[in-house]
UniProtKB/TrEMBL annotation:
Family matches, as SMART domains: RAB
Protein name, UniProt field: Uncharacterized protein
Gene Ontology molecular functions: GTP binding; GTPase activity
Classification lineage: Eukaryota, Sar, Alveolata, Ciliophora, Postciliodesmatophora
Signal peptide: none
UniProt source species: Stentor coeruleus
Protein backbone atom coordinates (compact mmCIF):
# COMPACT_ATOMS: atom_id res chain seq x y z
CA UNK A 1 0.00 0.00 0.00
CA UNK A 2 1.91 3.04 -1.28
CA UNK A 3 1.37 6.39 0.43
CA UNK A 4 3.01 9.77 0.35
CA UNK A 5 3.02 12.82 2.52
CA UNK A 6 -0.06 15.01 1.96
CA UNK A 7 2.22 17.91 0.99
CA UNK A 8 2.35 17.74 -2.81
CA UNK A 9 6.02 18.60 -3.20
CA UNK A 10 7.11 16.17 -0.48
CA UNK A 11 8.08 12.70 -1.70
CA UNK A 12 8.69 11.22 1.76
CA UNK A 13 6.61 8.34 3.03
CA UNK A 14 4.24 9.30 5.86
CA UNK A 15 5.23 8.05 9.26
CA UNK A 16 2.08 9.04 11.12
CA UNK A 17 -1.51 10.13 10.62
CA UNK A 18 -2.52 13.44 12.21
CA UNK A 19 -6.21 14.21 12.83
CA UNK A 20 -6.94 17.94 12.57
CA UNK A 21 -10.43 19.54 12.53
CA UNK A 22 -12.06 16.32 11.34
CA UNK A 23 -9.45 15.66 8.62
CA UNK A 24 -6.84 12.91 8.69
CA UNK A 25 -3.48 13.97 7.26
CA UNK A 26 -0.77 11.47 6.37
CA UNK A 27 2.48 13.33 7.02
CA UNK A 28 6.18 12.72 7.34
CA UNK A 29 8.03 13.67 10.53
CA UNK A 30 9.18 17.03 9.17
CA UNK A 31 5.76 18.25 8.05
CA UNK A 32 4.12 16.81 11.15
CA UNK A 33 6.29 18.95 13.41
CA UNK A 34 5.78 21.93 11.11
CA UNK A 35 2.01 21.51 11.17
CA UNK A 36 1.81 21.09 14.93
CA UNK A 37 3.93 24.21 15.35
CA UNK A 38 1.71 26.44 13.18
CA UNK A 39 -1.73 24.98 13.94
CA UNK A 40 -3.55 25.83 17.18
CA UNK A 41 -6.18 23.04 16.92
CA UNK A 42 -6.32 19.93 19.07
CA UNK A 43 -4.69 16.97 17.30
CA UNK A 44 -4.58 13.21 17.63
CA UNK A 45 -1.69 11.24 16.19
CA UNK A 46 -1.66 7.62 15.03
CA UNK A 47 1.08 5.43 13.59
CA UNK A 48 -1.45 3.49 11.48
CA UNK A 49 0.24 4.41 8.21
CA UNK A 50 3.38 2.58 9.24
CA UNK A 51 1.32 -0.57 9.70
CA UNK A 52 -0.63 -0.07 6.50
CA UNK A 53 2.53 0.45 4.47
CA UNK A 54 3.68 -3.02 5.55
CA UNK A 55 0.36 -4.66 4.68
CA UNK A 56 1.70 -6.41 1.58
CA UNK A 57 -1.41 -8.53 1.01
CA UNK A 58 -3.89 -5.66 1.61
CA UNK A 59 -5.61 -7.59 4.38
CA UNK A 60 -7.06 -4.44 5.87
CA UNK A 61 -8.75 -3.65 2.58
CA UNK A 62 -10.05 -7.25 2.48
CA UNK A 63 -11.40 -6.84 6.00
CA UNK A 64 -13.25 -3.67 5.00
CA UNK A 65 -14.68 -5.34 1.88
CA UNK A 66 -15.92 -8.29 3.93
CA UNK A 67 -17.52 -6.01 6.50
CA UNK A 68 -19.10 -3.95 3.72
CA UNK A 69 -20.49 -7.09 2.08
CA UNK A 70 -21.93 -8.20 5.43
CA UNK A 71 -23.69 -4.91 6.14
CA UNK A 72 -25.06 -4.78 2.57
CA UNK A 73 -26.56 -8.23 3.06
CA UNK A 74 -28.03 -7.18 6.39
CA UNK A 75 -29.43 -4.04 4.78
CA UNK A 76 -31.38 -6.14 2.28
CA UNK A 77 -32.55 -8.41 5.11
CA UNK A 78 -33.66 -5.39 7.14
CA UNK A 79 -35.64 -3.93 4.24
CA UNK A 80 -37.29 -7.28 3.58
CA UNK A 81 -38.31 -7.63 7.24
CA UNK A 82 -39.62 -4.09 7.33
CA UNK A 83 -41.73 -4.78 4.26
CA UNK A 84 -43.18 -7.83 5.99
CA UNK A 85 -43.88 -5.79 9.11
CA UNK A 86 -45.64 -3.05 7.15
CA UNK A 87 -47.64 -5.64 5.20
CA UNK A 88 -48.84 -7.23 8.44
CA UNK A 89 -49.64 -3.83 9.94
CA UNK A 90 -51.55 -2.88 6.81
CA UNK A 91 -53.45 -6.18 6.88
CA UNK A 92 -54.36 -5.77 10.55
CA UNK A 93 -55.34 -2.11 10.10
CA UNK A 94 -57.53 -2.93 7.12
CA UNK A 95 -59.34 -5.67 9.02
CA UNK A 96 -59.88 -3.44 12.06
CA UNK A 97 -61.19 -0.61 9.90
CA UNK A 98 -63.57 -2.97 8.10
CA UNK A 99 -65.07 -4.08 11.43
CA UNK A 100 -65.43 -0.55 12.78
CA UNK A 101 -66.86 0.85 9.56
CA UNK A 102 -69.31 -2.04 9.23
CA UNK A 103 -70.47 -1.44 12.80
CA UNK A 104 -70.88 2.26 12.12
CA UNK A 105 -72.82 1.63 8.91
CA UNK A 106 -74.97 -0.99 10.62
CA UNK A 107 -75.85 1.28 13.54
CA UNK A 108 -76.69 4.21 11.25
CA UNK A 109 -79.00 2.01 9.19
CA UNK A 110 -80.63 0.56 12.30
CA UNK A 111 -81.14 4.00 13.87
CA UNK A 112 -82.68 5.31 10.68
CA UNK A 113 -85.09 2.38 10.57
CA UNK A 114 -86.11 2.90 14.19
CA UNK A 115 -86.64 6.65 13.81
CA UNK A 116 -88.59 6.21 10.58
CA UNK A 117 -90.92 3.37 11.70
CA UNK A 118 -90.69 3.84 15.45
CA UNK A 119 -90.19 0.12 15.98
CA UNK A 120 -87.34 -2.34 16.40
CA UNK A 121 -87.11 -4.82 13.49
CA UNK A 122 -86.30 -8.47 14.18
CA UNK A 123 -84.20 -8.81 11.03
CA UNK A 124 -81.56 -6.10 10.60
CA UNK A 125 -80.09 -7.25 7.30
CA UNK A 126 -83.06 -7.01 4.94
CA UNK A 127 -84.34 -3.66 3.76
CA UNK A 128 -87.95 -2.53 4.37
CA UNK A 129 -88.39 -5.30 6.95
CA UNK A 130 -90.86 -4.47 9.73
CA UNK A 131 -92.15 -6.81 12.36
CA UNK A 132 -93.00 -7.05 16.00
CA UNK A 133 -90.77 -5.07 18.36
CA UNK A 134 -88.32 -6.91 20.58
CA UNK A 135 -86.95 -6.12 24.02
CA UNK A 136 -84.33 -3.36 24.13
CA UNK A 137 -82.18 -5.31 26.58
CA UNK A 138 -82.05 -8.29 24.22
CA UNK A 139 -81.12 -6.06 21.31
CA UNK A 140 -78.27 -4.43 23.20
CA UNK A 141 -76.96 -7.81 24.32
CA UNK A 142 -77.17 -9.14 20.78
CA UNK A 143 -75.25 -6.20 19.31
CA UNK A 144 -72.63 -6.15 22.03
CA UNK A 145 -71.88 -9.88 21.78
CA UNK A 146 -71.75 -9.80 18.00
CA UNK A 147 -69.20 -7.03 17.70
CA UNK A 148 -67.36 -8.00 20.87
CA UNK A 149 -66.41 -11.37 19.37
CA UNK A 150 -65.05 -9.67 16.26
CA UNK A 151 -62.96 -7.21 18.27
CA UNK A 152 -61.67 -10.01 20.51
CA UNK A 153 -60.49 -11.98 17.48
CA UNK A 154 -58.79 -8.94 15.95
CA UNK A 155 -57.16 -8.00 19.26
CA UNK A 156 -55.78 -11.53 19.61
CA UNK A 157 -54.18 -11.28 16.16
CA UNK A 158 -52.69 -7.92 17.12
CA UNK A 159 -51.18 -9.30 20.33
CA UNK A 160 -49.67 -12.22 18.39
CA UNK A 161 -48.15 -9.73 15.93
CA UNK A 162 -46.68 -7.58 18.74
CA UNK A 163 -45.26 -10.68 20.43
CA UNK A 164 -43.64 -11.73 17.17
CA UNK A 165 -41.95 -8.33 16.87
CA UNK A 166 -40.64 -8.26 20.44
CA UNK A 167 -39.60 -11.90 20.46
CA UNK A 168 -37.19 -11.48 17.54
CA UNK A 169 -34.86 -8.44 17.66
CA UNK A 170 -34.55 -6.96 14.21
CA UNK A 171 -30.76 -6.49 14.48
CA UNK A 172 -30.12 -9.87 16.09
CA UNK A 173 -27.73 -11.08 13.36
CA UNK A 174 -25.75 -7.84 13.38
CA UNK A 175 -25.44 -7.85 17.17
CA UNK A 176 -24.23 -11.46 17.13
CA UNK A 177 -21.75 -10.53 14.40
CA UNK A 178 -20.19 -7.76 16.49
CA UNK A 179 -20.29 -9.73 19.74
CA UNK A 180 -17.82 -12.25 18.32
CA UNK A 181 -14.26 -11.61 19.53
CA UNK A 182 -12.13 -9.76 17.01
CA UNK A 183 -9.00 -11.60 16.00
CA UNK A 184 -5.75 -9.67 16.49
CA UNK A 185 -4.68 -8.09 13.20
CA UNK A 186 -1.02 -8.86 12.54
CA UNK A 187 -0.95 -7.71 8.94
CA UNK A 188 2.13 -5.55 9.51
CA UNK A 189 4.32 -8.27 11.01
CA UNK A 190 3.87 -11.67 9.38
CA UNK A 191 4.67 -12.91 5.91
CA UNK A 192 2.27 -12.70 3.01
CA UNK A 193 1.39 -16.39 3.12
CA UNK A 194 0.74 -16.34 6.83
CA UNK A 195 -1.44 -13.26 6.50
CA UNK A 196 -3.49 -14.89 3.75
CA UNK A 197 -4.28 -17.86 6.02
CA UNK A 198 -5.15 -15.60 8.95
CA UNK A 199 -7.37 -13.42 6.82
CA UNK A 200 -9.20 -16.43 5.39
CA UNK A 201 -9.76 -17.89 8.86
CA UNK A 202 -10.93 -14.52 10.15
CA UNK A 203 -13.38 -14.22 7.28
CA UNK A 204 -14.74 -17.69 7.98
CA UNK A 205 -15.14 -16.92 11.69
CA UNK A 206 -16.97 -13.70 10.94
CA UNK A 207 -19.38 -15.55 8.65
CA UNK A 208 -18.48 -13.57 5.52
CA UNK A 209 -19.20 -15.76 2.53
CA UNK A 210 -17.83 -13.67 -0.33
CA UNK A 211 -14.17 -13.71 0.73
CA UNK A 212 -12.01 -13.52 -2.40
CA UNK A 213 -10.22 -16.86 -2.58
CA UNK A 214 -7.15 -17.65 -4.67
CA UNK A 215 -7.88 -18.23 -8.33
CA UNK A 216 -7.45 -22.02 -8.21
CA UNK A 217 -9.87 -22.42 -5.32
CA UNK A 218 -12.43 -20.14 -6.97
CA UNK A 219 -12.23 -22.19 -10.15
CA UNK A 220 -12.97 -25.37 -8.19
CA UNK A 221 -15.86 -23.62 -6.47
CA UNK A 222 -17.38 -22.67 -9.81
CA UNK A 223 -16.95 -26.21 -11.09
CA UNK A 224 -18.72 -27.60 -8.02
CA UNK A 225 -21.61 -25.14 -8.34
CA UNK A 226 -22.08 -26.00 -12.02
CA UNK A 227 -21.87 -22.41 -13.23
CA UNK A 228 -21.91 -22.67 -16.98
CA UNK A 229 -19.79 -19.68 -17.87
CA UNK A 230 -16.75 -21.47 -16.41
CA UNK A 231 -15.07 -23.40 -19.24
CA UNK A 232 -15.74 -27.08 -18.57
CA UNK A 233 -15.71 -30.14 -20.83
CA UNK A 234 -18.84 -30.28 -22.95
CA UNK A 235 -19.49 -33.92 -21.90
CA UNK A 236 -20.72 -32.70 -18.54
CA UNK A 237 -23.76 -31.17 -20.25
CA UNK A 238 -24.50 -34.41 -22.09
CA UNK A 239 -25.05 -36.33 -18.83
CA UNK A 240 -28.16 -34.44 -17.73
CA UNK A 241 -31.22 -36.46 -16.69
CA UNK A 242 -33.76 -34.13 -18.28
CA UNK A 243 -33.74 -31.18 -20.68
CA UNK A 244 -36.17 -28.23 -20.48
CA UNK A 245 -36.68 -25.47 -23.03
CA UNK A 246 -36.86 -21.96 -21.59
CA UNK A 247 -37.44 -18.59 -23.26
CA UNK A 248 -35.87 -15.41 -21.89
CA UNK A 249 -37.98 -12.35 -22.73
CA UNK A 250 -37.76 -8.65 -22.08
CA UNK A 251 -36.91 -5.35 -23.71
CA UNK A 252 -33.45 -4.88 -25.16
CA UNK A 253 -32.64 -2.40 -22.35
CA UNK A 254 -33.48 -4.95 -19.63
CA UNK A 255 -29.86 -6.27 -19.51
CA UNK A 256 -31.10 -9.82 -20.08
CA UNK A 257 -28.28 -10.53 -22.52
CA UNK A 258 -25.71 -9.46 -19.92
CA UNK A 259 -27.31 -11.86 -17.44
CA UNK A 260 -27.29 -14.81 -19.84
CA UNK A 261 -23.80 -14.01 -21.13
CA UNK A 262 -22.38 -15.11 -17.78
CA UNK A 263 -23.38 -18.64 -18.69
CA UNK A 264 -21.91 -20.90 -21.33
CA UNK A 265 -23.10 -20.28 -24.86
CA UNK A 266 -23.45 -23.51 -26.80
CA UNK A 267 -24.73 -22.30 -30.19
CA UNK A 268 -24.30 -19.31 -32.43
CA UNK A 269 -27.14 -17.00 -33.34
CA UNK A 270 -29.97 -18.79 -35.12
CA UNK A 271 -30.63 -16.87 -38.32
CA UNK A 272 -34.10 -18.22 -38.96
CA UNK A 273 -35.73 -16.87 -35.81
CA UNK A 274 -33.14 -14.43 -34.50
CA UNK A 275 -32.62 -16.08 -31.13
CA UNK A 276 -29.47 -16.77 -29.10
CA UNK A 277 -29.18 -20.17 -27.41
CA UNK A 278 -27.60 -20.52 -23.97
CA UNK A 279 -27.19 -23.59 -21.80
CA UNK A 280 -27.36 -23.76 -18.01
CA UNK A 281 -27.02 -26.93 -15.96
CA UNK A 282 -28.16 -27.32 -12.38
CA UNK A 283 -28.97 -30.06 -9.88
CA UNK A 284 -32.33 -30.18 -8.13
CA UNK A 285 -32.75 -30.95 -4.44
CA UNK A 286 -33.80 -34.48 -5.42
CA UNK A 287 -30.43 -35.00 -7.15
CA UNK A 288 -31.90 -34.81 -10.66
CA UNK A 289 -29.52 -33.16 -13.14
CA UNK A 290 -31.32 -30.62 -15.30
CA UNK A 291 -30.15 -28.95 -18.48
CA UNK A 292 -31.89 -25.72 -19.50
CA UNK A 293 -31.79 -24.65 -23.12
CA UNK A 294 -32.46 -20.94 -22.79
CA UNK A 295 -33.45 -19.03 -25.90
CA UNK A 296 -33.11 -15.26 -25.89
CA UNK A 297 -35.81 -13.60 -28.00
CA UNK A 298 -33.38 -11.12 -29.56
CA UNK A 299 -35.22 -9.41 -32.40
CA UNK A 300 -38.41 -11.41 -31.85
CA UNK A 301 -40.56 -8.30 -32.24
CA UNK A 302 -39.82 -8.53 -35.98
CA UNK A 303 -41.00 -12.13 -36.27
CA UNK A 304 -44.25 -12.01 -34.30
CA UNK A 305 -46.43 -12.94 -37.26
CA UNK A 306 -44.37 -16.01 -38.15
CA UNK A 307 -43.20 -17.29 -34.78
CA UNK A 308 -46.13 -19.48 -33.73
CA UNK A 309 -43.69 -22.41 -33.49
CA UNK A 310 -41.49 -20.30 -31.21
CA UNK A 311 -43.73 -21.14 -28.23
CA UNK A 312 -43.99 -24.88 -28.94
CA UNK A 313 -42.54 -27.22 -26.34
CA UNK A 314 -41.70 -24.35 -23.99
CA UNK A 315 -41.42 -25.43 -20.36
CA UNK A 316 -40.55 -22.12 -18.75
CA UNK A 317 -40.29 -18.38 -19.38
CA UNK A 318 -37.87 -15.89 -17.80
CA UNK A 319 -39.17 -12.31 -17.81
CA UNK A 320 -36.37 -9.79 -17.26
CA UNK A 321 -36.45 -6.09 -16.44
CA UNK A 322 -33.88 -3.56 -15.24
CA UNK A 323 -34.44 -1.98 -11.84
CA UNK A 324 -32.89 1.22 -13.22
CA UNK A 325 -35.27 1.40 -16.22
CA UNK A 326 -38.96 1.68 -15.39
CA UNK A 327 -39.97 1.26 -19.05
CA UNK A 328 -38.56 -2.28 -19.10
CA UNK A 329 -40.71 -3.12 -16.08
CA UNK A 330 -43.85 -1.59 -17.58
CA UNK A 331 -43.52 -3.80 -20.66
CA UNK A 332 -43.43 -7.01 -18.57
CA UNK A 333 -47.24 -7.20 -18.51
CA UNK A 334 -47.27 -7.19 -22.34
CA UNK A 335 -44.69 -9.96 -22.53
CA UNK A 336 -46.53 -11.97 -19.88
CA UNK A 337 -49.85 -11.69 -21.71
CA UNK A 338 -48.28 -12.81 -24.99
CA UNK A 339 -46.65 -15.89 -23.50
CA UNK A 340 -49.67 -16.92 -21.44
CA UNK A 341 -51.82 -16.75 -24.57
CA UNK A 342 -49.43 -18.93 -26.59
CA UNK A 343 -47.76 -21.29 -24.11
CA UNK A 344 -49.29 -24.36 -22.47
CA UNK A 345 -50.98 -23.99 -19.10
CA UNK A 346 -48.19 -25.98 -17.40
CA UNK A 347 -45.54 -23.46 -18.46
CA UNK A 348 -43.80 -21.83 -15.48
CA UNK A 349 -42.73 -18.19 -15.23
CA UNK A 350 -40.12 -16.34 -13.21
CA UNK A 351 -39.76 -12.56 -13.01
CA UNK A 352 -36.16 -11.37 -12.60
CA UNK A 353 -35.17 -7.81 -11.79
CA UNK A 354 -31.59 -7.00 -12.75
CA UNK A 355 -29.77 -4.65 -10.39
CA UNK A 356 -26.56 -3.33 -11.90
CA UNK A 357 -23.39 -2.74 -9.93
CA UNK A 358 -23.93 1.00 -10.22
CA UNK A 359 -27.41 0.70 -8.67
CA UNK A 360 -25.89 -1.28 -5.80
CA UNK A 361 -23.47 1.56 -5.09
CA UNK A 362 -26.01 4.35 -5.76
CA UNK A 363 -29.49 3.21 -4.57
CA UNK A 364 -31.01 6.48 -5.84
CA UNK A 365 -30.68 5.14 -9.40
CA UNK A 366 -33.19 2.37 -8.69
CA UNK A 367 -36.51 3.21 -10.36
CA UNK A 368 -38.30 -0.08 -9.64
CA UNK A 369 -37.99 -1.12 -5.95
CA UNK A 370 -38.00 -4.78 -4.97
CA UNK A 371 -41.48 -4.74 -3.46
CA UNK A 372 -42.97 -3.54 -6.76
CA UNK A 373 -41.64 -6.60 -8.57
CA UNK A 374 -42.64 -8.86 -5.68
CA UNK A 375 -46.23 -7.59 -5.74
CA UNK A 376 -46.50 -8.03 -9.51
CA UNK A 377 -45.16 -11.59 -9.24
CA UNK A 378 -47.52 -12.42 -6.37
CA UNK A 379 -50.58 -11.09 -8.21
CA UNK A 380 -49.73 -12.99 -11.39
CA UNK A 381 -48.55 -16.18 -9.65
CA UNK A 382 -44.94 -15.87 -10.82
CA UNK A 383 -41.64 -16.76 -9.22
CA UNK A 384 -39.54 -13.70 -8.38
CA UNK A 385 -35.88 -12.88 -7.90
CA UNK A 386 -33.90 -9.65 -7.86
CA UNK A 387 -30.34 -10.30 -8.94
CA UNK A 388 -27.05 -8.63 -9.56
CA UNK A 389 -25.65 -10.33 -12.64
CA UNK A 390 -22.18 -10.18 -11.09
CA UNK A 391 -23.36 -12.72 -8.50
CA UNK A 392 -23.23 -15.97 -10.47
CA UNK A 393 -24.28 -18.08 -7.49
CA UNK A 394 -27.59 -16.25 -6.95
CA UNK A 395 -28.22 -16.20 -10.70
CA UNK A 396 -27.85 -19.96 -10.80
CA UNK A 397 -30.12 -20.32 -7.77
CA UNK A 398 -32.85 -18.41 -9.61
CA UNK A 399 -32.67 -20.80 -12.56
CA UNK A 400 -32.60 -23.74 -10.15
CA UNK A 401 -35.81 -22.43 -8.54
CA UNK A 402 -37.42 -22.27 -11.97
CA UNK A 403 -36.20 -25.79 -12.76
CA UNK A 404 -37.76 -27.13 -9.56
CA UNK A 405 -41.14 -25.67 -10.53
CA UNK A 406 -40.89 -26.94 -14.11
CA UNK A 407 -40.12 -30.44 -12.85
CA UNK A 408 -43.16 -30.42 -10.53
CA UNK A 409 -45.34 -29.10 -13.36
CA UNK A 410 -44.13 -31.78 -15.77
CA UNK A 411 -44.86 -34.51 -13.21
CA UNK A 412 -48.38 -33.12 -12.75
CA UNK A 413 -48.76 -33.03 -16.52
CA UNK A 414 -47.87 -36.74 -16.76
CA UNK A 415 -50.38 -37.63 -14.06
CA UNK A 416 -53.14 -35.74 -15.88
CA UNK A 417 -52.20 -37.43 -19.16
CA UNK A 418 -52.47 -40.85 -17.51
CA UNK A 419 -55.89 -40.07 -16.05
CA UNK A 420 -57.47 -38.79 -19.28
CA UNK A 421 -57.66 -42.18 -21.10
CA UNK A 422 -59.29 -43.77 -18.05
CA UNK A 423 -61.95 -41.06 -17.99
CA UNK A 424 -62.74 -41.63 -21.66
CA UNK A 425 -63.08 -45.38 -21.12
CA UNK A 426 -65.48 -44.86 -18.25
CA UNK A 427 -67.67 -42.52 -20.31
CA UNK A 428 -67.67 -44.99 -23.23
CA UNK A 429 -68.61 -47.84 -20.88
CA UNK A 430 -71.48 -45.83 -19.40
CA UNK A 431 -72.85 -45.08 -22.85
CA UNK A 432 -72.95 -48.82 -23.68
CA UNK A 433 -74.74 -49.66 -20.45
CA UNK A 434 -77.32 -46.91 -21.03
CA UNK A 435 -77.87 -48.05 -24.59
Amino acid sequence: MEAKCYINLCQSKPSESVSCNGFSLAVCNYHKNLHLKNCQSVHSISSLYIKLSNDKSNQFATFLKNELAFIETQLETFLRRMRNVFQKINKFSSKALIIMNSQKKFFIKLLKNIEQYNILPICFFEENMRNKPIEVDNLETLLRNNFKSQYNHTDTKYQEFVFELTDRPIFNEILQHYEKPTKARSFYNGSSQKNNVESKNYSAEMGVSNYVQPYEEYGNYKAEMGVSNYVQPYEEYENSDVVYNVICAGDSESEKYTLLNFFRRDNETSANIGANIFTITTTLDSGLKVKLNIRDNAGEEIYKESNSSFFDNTHGVVLVYSTANEATYNSISIWLSEFKNNCEKHCKFILIGIKSELCTKIPELIKVPSFVGENFARINNLLFAELSYQDRHNCLMAFKMLSEEIYKSEQQKKIEAQNKPNEKKRKWYKKIIRF
